[in-house]
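Q: I'm writing a short explainer about Aminotransferase class I/classII large domain-containing protein for a general audience and would like to include a description of its predicted shape. Could you first generate the structure from this sequence?
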Amino acid sequence: MTIFYPGTRRKMSSKDLYKPANRNIGFDKNVWVEFTALARDYKAVNLGQGFPDMPPPHFVKEALGRVAASSDFAVNQYTRSQGHPRLVNALGKLYTQLMKRAIDPLSEILVTGGAYESLYCSFLGLVDPGDEVILIEPYFDCYVPQISVAGGIPKFVPLRAKENATSTKDWILDKDELEAAFSEKTRAIVINTPHNPIGKVFSMEELQLIADLCKKYNVICISDEVYEWLVYGGEQHLRIATLPGMWERTITVGSAGKTFSITGWKLGWSIGPKELIKNLQTTQAQITYNLATPTQEALAQAFEHEIPLIDTEKSYFTGLRSMLERKRDVMAKLLTEVGFKPVIPQGGYFMMADTSGIDVNFDEYDKSDDPPDYKFVRWLTKEKGIAAIPPSAFYSLEHKYMGAKYIRFCFIKEDSTLESGAKKLKEWKAELGK
Ligand SMILES: Cc1ncc(COP(=O)(O)O)c(C=O)c1O
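A: Of course. Here's the predicted structure. Afterward I'll give you a sentence or two in plain language.
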């Protein structure tokens, strides 16, 4: 093992003082940074980035208030590195129900700084330089830099949209293409259901195919399920960890931000067998060591409130689902009226809209070499005051063209925000008609 002491640092010339570490080169451009700033600068109606613009549920706010007022000094001090005891106990209880197996809160759960850090700990804790990690495109954009920092090599398998796809059921995972990506170098596959950006909910058949390949090639499955509560139209969220032979090779990733509409809390978790989770725990202990105690305590109380209500009319998750299904349908109607062809999502809170029916000449407007969806979104934000996200950001270089005729909208927005968006879209439609 090589140990680096401060004295062995290479001598720097003045030229390379500001040089990034090689592992970071190429990752400085980030779709969120550009398009969040653009939305802000142009005061656009933000139908792009995935955060709710409404208050969180009352019981979550009340829990945080109680923690703030608590006279127990311990809620303001360091807590257990792998996760605050009250929170891992609540998560253990919840996922014991969901996974239909007894989850040990101490060894089978890790609490992290959002789902982001769960993913990062999975890659850093389990992937060695040269290991391959299969990603299904489009994929949540942080997977690639995180895998690369670990020295892993992403291998891409695109979902293929049928001609004139109207639902995310029309985005298909090709069996042969998927199997061709597996080899003895494959360490892991990342799946995301319900999916960002398209909103696909993977079927039992698709999960079984992935599970069979994981077992055949002895591969870990990292299952990003941050939108687990958001499925519509009678769809069911299925957990790959519950398929035969999959618990022992799956890390399930969740997010408090998506679960309780509190993205700013940045708390997430990984759940899996202790043999895998311990590697993530080791990694996390080198990054943050432990997360903020007050928010973990409040999140635990929020789960304790919600768990007995799950699947009842009183459940926050039930209400959120029906509210979002209504907003999804409102957004689809609006987009259709202007000439977009929305792809109706089965889950999550994003919607892809096909722009090919809309005639705007971006080349005159935007001389960059960026894909058409980047140009479309810049134009839409600056000229029409509506912010969205370009989905080609969620594809490898080779497959960017697959996302470039779409733009991604987010519908977890107040009705008033959707109405402002509708007003702007209608003004635009009137101009198009002239
Ligand atoms: C698919 C997916 N995974 C992970 C994350 C990160 O979640 P968190 O905010 O909990 O870090 C997001 C956030 O948008 C996401 O869409």
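A: For your explainer, you could say: Residues 50, 114-116, 140, 192, 196, 224, 226, 255, 257, 263, 268 surround pyridoxal-5'-phosphate (CB under 6 Å).
Q: Perfect, that's easy to follow.
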